[in-house]
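Model: Ready when you are.
Researcher: Fold this.
Model:
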Amino acid sequence: MSEKLQKVLARAGKGSRREMEGVISQGRVSVDGKVAYLGDRVDGTEQIRIDGHAVKIADAESQPCRVLVYNKPEGEMCTRKDPEGRPTVFDRLPKIDGSRWVAVGRLDINTSGMLIFTNDGELANRLMHPSHEVEREYAVRVFGEIDEAMLQRLRHGVKLEDGMAKFNKITYTGGEGRNHWFHVVLTEGRNREVRRLWESQDVQVSRLIRVRYGDLQMDRRLPMGGWVELGLKDVNYYRKLVSLTVETQSKVAVDEKRIDHNKSRKIRKNVKKHQQRRAQSQTQSRRKRR
């Protein structure tokens, strides 16, 4: 049985299916020595290369689908490497054999909260795609004058530079003076969409935190900069949500508890160690440049 080339590359952990379509279109992929094109199909016996480097093809049944939830701090980039040397969301993730982590969407550098990673490129692509209408919920603090007419406009839709956009739900959660906290829900992942929607109404977003993706909320006990791997039940929740077959294997023990006090403390300790190592590395790099 043959499969689309971009799907095979995504499953091999080279990126999302959409990203792989772009790589193929750029002429960077070859199959058995010949430049590949969008629409090509492979059966897994071919020699596939990206930029001349051989790709280890992952059999769909060879390893279980894994999903991590990461509590992203502000100041981290959603890229694998940053030319300016800024920290990225991939820096703290565990190593994974024969594959790599794919981020499910992005959070901009000033946004914190729930970021999902998976080793299954097809799952990542479907969770991001607007056709599946997967809800994202954010806690947002805005500064400015808010009235009901403004909230109604944001619920019904406003025109942004890349088309109409709206919040599916807006819930006021408190505030003082001109600072107001809301929880907002939408089913798209356009660039800076939450911020741009509020800014279209001449109010400023001063804090933005993603708290939910689909029906799964990020555990409040997960420390900033820490990650936790989801168990089989939650992995299959996401797979069924986007019409993928369920998994029967998991790297996480079936009876493993959710984050308790001891586990939270251990994660926090690991985050601190990572920060110390990064600070030492930056100090050494500055000394070398001198």
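Researcher: Now this one.
Model:
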Amino acid sequence: MLSENEEIHFHTPAKFADAFPYLALVAGSRTAHPEEASIRKRFHQHVFVYTTGGRGLIEVRGQGFLAETGSVAWLDTAQAYAHSCAPDSENWRYLWMGIEGHGLDALYQFLGVQQSPLFAPRDPRTVQAAFEGVSGFLAERSPATDALASAAISGLIVDMIGPRLTGSEPGEDAPGEDRLLAVLSAMRDDLARAWTIDDLAALARLSQSQLFRRFRDMVGTTPMDWLRHERINQAKRLLVGRDAKVSAVAAICGYPDPYHFSRDFRRVTGYTPTKFRRDGGY
């Protein structure tokens, strides 16, 4: 149940949503107070948080960052993170959105967001309008929602990261990161393949132990757990199609055994595939 200080709008992308570069899956607003527990939920998506008042505390890999009014925090919620109202602030008011999109993982790494998750956008008013626009599009749920939200997110990203791109260079460990990005891209591009750890280690040119260690440092989980969530995310998009059959969706998403698919789907989402499809997603 939502509190009176919180508003959330969920969205299941439409059939042709993949035609657009960015997808908004959820958006909303919240007012947090110092006595409330930190939020640490793992969504396996990128989340942008815009501070409209007060101050927030963003924690990534054990480091704390203060989110001031007008700043944007970029979180990859597949990795360990936390955010809360700063202890010395009366409250923390913010807008937020959870998104997926082409190139976000690579851009996240290139900009060193894990080491510096806060951005000072060129025009905070434009950024706030983008957050409010995406939330409004998701609330309306019109046939144009995916197109409108994608356009707003594109503009937001330009305003948000533009200052940091000026003169920026890839991090020192770019070759190692590129190997893991290649692994992520290969798995995402062929979810139906029966991937093994041997396959992934060979693709990354790493030993299995090196792959596990570097993958967990970069992504916050194991390769197979990440793959499982990517398969289920794809299944959610397919299941809302009018003629989607559970067995066919299972096969497309790398599950030749529908029972195994149903078990994993329920473990990740809390729903059976049939109920998720019947309810039109969430």
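Researcher: Key takeaway?
Model: The domain at 174-278 is CATH 1.10.10.60 (Arc Repressor Mutant, subunit A).
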